Amino acid sequence: MANxxxxxxxxxxxRVDGYDKVTGRAKYTGDLEIPGMLYGHVLRxxxxxxxxxxxxxGAAERLxxxxxxxxGRDVGDLxxxxxxxxxxxxxxxxxxxxxxxxxxxxxxxTAEQAAALVEVTYEELPAAMxxxxxxxxxxxxxxxxxxxNICGHDKVRRGDVAQGFAESDRIFEHHFTFPxxxxxxxxxxxxxxDYRDDGITLWSSAQHPFLVQADLARIFGxxxxxxxxxxxxxxxxxxxxxxxxxxxxxxxASRKVRRPVRVCLSVSEAMVTVRRHSAKVRVKTGVKEDGTxxxxxxxxxxxxxxxxxxxxxxxxxxATRVLxxxxxxxxxxxxxxxxxxxGGAGSFxxxxxxxxxxxxxxxxxxxxASLGRDPAELRLKNLLKRGExxxxxxxxxxxxxxxxxxxLVSASRWKTRSRKDGAxxxxxxxxxxxxxxxxxxxxxxxxxxxxxxxMAGSTEMGQGVRTVLSQFVGEELxxxxxxxxxxxxxxxxxxxxRSTGSSRSTTLMxxxxxxxxxxxxxxxxxxxxxxxxxRAGEIRLTDGALVCGEARMSFAEALEKRFGAAAGELIGTGxxxxxxxxxxxxxxxxxxxxxxxxxxxxxxxxVSVADYLSVADVGKAINxxxxxxxxxxxxxxxxGHALFEEMIYEGGQLVNSNLVDYRIxxxxxxxxxxxxVLVENGDGLGPYGSRGMGEGGIFSVAPAITGxxxxxxxxxxxxxxxxxxxxxxxxRTAGGTDRT
Amino acid sequence: MANxxxxxxxxxxxRVDGYDKVTGRAKYTGDLEIPGMLYGHVLRxxxxxxxxxxxxxGAAERLxxxxxxxxGRDVGDLxxxxxxxxxxxxxxxxxxxxxxxxxxxxxxxTAEQAAALVEVTYEELPAAMxxxxxxxxxxxxxxxxxxxNICGHDKVRRGDVAQGFAESDRIFEHHFTFPxxxxxxxxxxxxxxDYRDDGITLWSSAQHPFLVQADLARIFGxxxxxxxxxxxxxxxxxxxxxxxxxxxxxxxASRKVRRPVRVCLSVSEAMVTVRRHSAKVRVKTGVKEDGTxxxxxxxxxxxxxxxxxxxxxxxxxxATRVLxxxxxxxxxxxxxxxxxxxGGAGSFxxxxxxxxxxxxxxxxxxxxASLGRDPAELRLKNLLKRGExxxxxxxxxxxxxxxxxxxLVSASRWKTRSRKDGAxxxxxxxxxxxxxxxxxxxxxxxxxxxxxxxMAGSTEMGQGVRTVLSQFVGEELxxxxxxxxxxxxxxxxxxxxRSTGSSRSTTLMxxxxxxxxxxxxxxxxxxxxxxxxxRAGEIRLTDGALVCGEARMSFAEALEKRFGAAAGELIGTGxxxxxxxxxxxxxxxxxxxxxxxxxxxxxxxxVSVADYLSVADVGKAINxxxxxxxxxxxxxxxxGHALFEEMIYEGGQLVNSNLVDYRIxxxxxxxxxxxxVLVENGDGLGPYGSRGMGEGGIFSVAPAITGxxxxxxxxxxxxxxxxxxxxxxxxRTAGGTDRT
Lengths: 740, 740
Prior knowledge:
The structure is a homodimer. By secondary structure, chain A is α+β, with helices and mostly antiparallel strands.
């Protein structure tokens, strides 16, 4: 697409939600109160696996201020399952923290007090904690009606991997582990549900309002359109608020007491509600002596926890993502989602990516070291080219990988910095097939005062989508952003959008909104052509007005021309369907690469990042400063994964579910040098050739760090996080090597 | 328009809002609570005219629970005028009941108590109560900066009225009076306002949300689109909730305390907020001996009260409506809106109609009696024909008036019943130029479950607009009404609609919604054509599905075909602008006629209606039973005007502002025989040739009743209401005649 001079797109415009947020005026679900609303408190299982023998809610129900207590008995008339889980425990609990009852009361303290009065009699059962236990031949079954504990499996096959290894000069095989990670959004899940005979209204911090709508409609027996979901601002999502989470539970509670009920989770509760899959990854790679990749075999096990959620989808992604952005003639990968008796795992920024790319890219660094080759050169040799098919069934590559890697090498002065023996520098790169489905409808309304309203179902969760979509409308209509508005989704009023996630909002919603704005523009030009007595092509839009030669007519005047008064409006619509990718996913190939330089305190084992440089191929940076924010935010998250974060289960209990014991990166952990380079080849499917971003910055961090540690110390780390204790112990073992 | 077999249009479908209303689930503004909301109480002037010397709010402000007190001092930075009034009294009060202060407090009782603590020092000034006082040469001026008290004047001139009278064989001149009437909606005005730095959000029982939005935007200095008005159900409107009423006052209160504030008026407060204009009407008509109308002169004075509102518009309408649906070669009418020191008057079902048509049609009956002609025959002789221009500047007639009158005559067996001397039967007819402006935009969304949502700014105030619009969508899409939904207007989300009133929703919004539904249909047929491999014209829609021969695809399946999943939606838009009437109003000529038979108790003067038959030319009855409901509701209102209702001011005070002292018709007053005949010529501008209704039923009642009284007793009544006392006194005066 030929880009003429752009005014709003590509500019560091102010965030349209900035004022609301810095003044504290932005409303989140927990800020909302609905008249007649009760407060719900969830009583949770303290057993990892048990049969529920009896529940006595009598004492709780008798407590003054309690409106009712929901238990599994109340949902017997429904099929209460979604994402493989019941909305509340039925005969059995399968993880510590599983909802067993919900008390709805006049105030939160009464609800909590009453929950303590609910007496649950359990018969404890043996639990399978962790992948090894769950995969053991005699493991307790998490779901008694299933064969074993595998809940999802996907594989990639190409060529003949045995032949590939036979033709290789060198074969590398390593085992990696990746911990359970929590999203740690600023805002844990919050839901207000109002169940009525003829439908349900919810306010929820949901990333995917329309998918949640569909789940609720099915469970509670309404047509989709009778379930209205309102999504205010989200205090972060990162996939943790994808799909239905506690919405069905809160709706069931409201259905029980026939009043609106609000449940806002604590951090501890949210941590057992959803997290990233921990993983065990075996990667075996065959290479020629010159570094040409010949074959890769991988086996990935992912700890999905007690219920499926989208674990199988995570496995599917991992089976592909472990391959890296490389041309590999012989492939044989398997990824398994595994039930365990832990809280559930689900989507998390670049699903299945960090786990598998940590393994694949760590090994690439080991191969380079072993072959005595520069790790950048090794990669450059094997990178896929534009138009090549990375794995059968996926859309051919539309990116220039080599160009991006060369930018990384030059921008980081990689060759100079890595030349020195023992320099604590490392590098990694990755590519993901972001999973967004192209089903999106949007509207743009141009109102009588010349202001525009975007009606789009994208969830603003900090990523800046309202700003980006406003920029598209601003550009098409040449309308200043102060005169463009976009609110949160309300499924009753906002057009359908599949979901917010998988880097799909800038690209897919962007296209729909752009179309809608062009529809409005067409209508404006028609009015202008009639008013000026010229052809539409002779009119240009500028600063909220139509201009042709000396003639000028503001949008408000154009509306007045059309409607005979300061009144009326123009409505434009835009629709994106599967045709834009000819049914072959992904919409977006997302590319991220990074180099790191560490400070390593060999006395304490403490590792910190002195410098991080990230290169993201964004196609077109719609709002460069927001892109940098996304990229740096992702890198900080990757840094947390690499150095600090790990949810620790002991005896079925999550023992570090708070901000003190579960360590996330803080500002003091931020790299002293922190650089982002945006590659803009204009070759994405989004407006102006954009390709979406936000996932690419996360996955190169950990393998770059392990690469730097190995380069500096000779010790290869294959297990995360790289806590001081782990690093110190490994370094203390003189000349220590990795476990494999 | 050729109407094929219709399924939803023309059927007595169930009201789509019926279930909400009979279960009490329908929400009105007074049912809503907004978090953090305060309750406002309005302190009102108890002087009809006074200067405000001082206001001391100190004691009120100190009362615990009071957040703040708004007075005129707080709006000094604004131009606080709208509809000719300040939103709160500034230096002067001009009617008893004018808002002087608003207290916002934690609860309604505290607010009321605090309002009593506000000390206002007045300097009383002479007041002009009633038209005569206000029109006297030395009358106190209601607005000191204006010349005299006339606030609006319109006139109709045609031919030479002196010549017309000269050519007449007989000249009739009479004086009529019409009382002040209150709308008496079930729900008085309610408003919740939330003022913020960046805009205003309101919930209001407003008939014209977009016009109120524009007023508020102007007063408070925001672009229109920063003012969001939500309109829940209305408990009746009848014009009483047209234009801005208390919205600016409540917004100013919220602006003062920076919290949401709710004010719900009592009936007493609402009665001084808006009412129908009382009127004095002089009509002089010249006729040939054969009954041919030659000339009409009329002078109409309307009591607008202290502030203008739309009084001038009421005068404009009255100047035309006094002419009746007759061919009159020489016309000379003047109508004046007059300021007095009473509470304000404004729109009321058929503005200016009942007052002027009562006069004109009463006189027609007197002319018929005097000429010894049948009143129906007299009218038939003079009725305008299709295509004739009733008054210069208006759209030519598109109705068959004679046909409608013949239907009235035959359906009521008028000739048989009126033949008998002294039969208590009367007849009247009227026509109005309903004033709706054609500026309307609508959307129809077809969602993935095959359900449709109508997004239209029409206010449901009992008239059944949601049902009618649903029928249009049902018909176009052949979709059962249970699967069609429409909510209240929210100016932030609902497309622009000029107003709800003037019989414009079925016609104008109907056209916009029909267009939008056809836009969806076109998209559906395109999907169907591709799926079935046929031309779109070969597919028909039936029961929510596309059918072609044996092939059938539900709408949900069509969406799935389009989007590759049970997802997405189709959006249709429709726009109606001034082009549909080529800028010549009215959109709708509204015709209503009625015959009445009375029971007259000569001992007590009590008059009741034994039988009433109404004929309405509706063009096409979209929902016949709703049409009948509208027509009968209007007739009952007209019956109230004729027999019972009158707001009584004594010494500046409204003394009967409650349901006991202000008598409205009850079920026991309903005619024993109550019949509605709908004339359907399919010649209106609305969908299916509909022409809108709801105003036509009201204005024939009073002149038909005075005609029947005169026919039965020989006494002509020219003043309303016909209370037992008034009737008894007149009958007691043996052979009493009217005042003229």
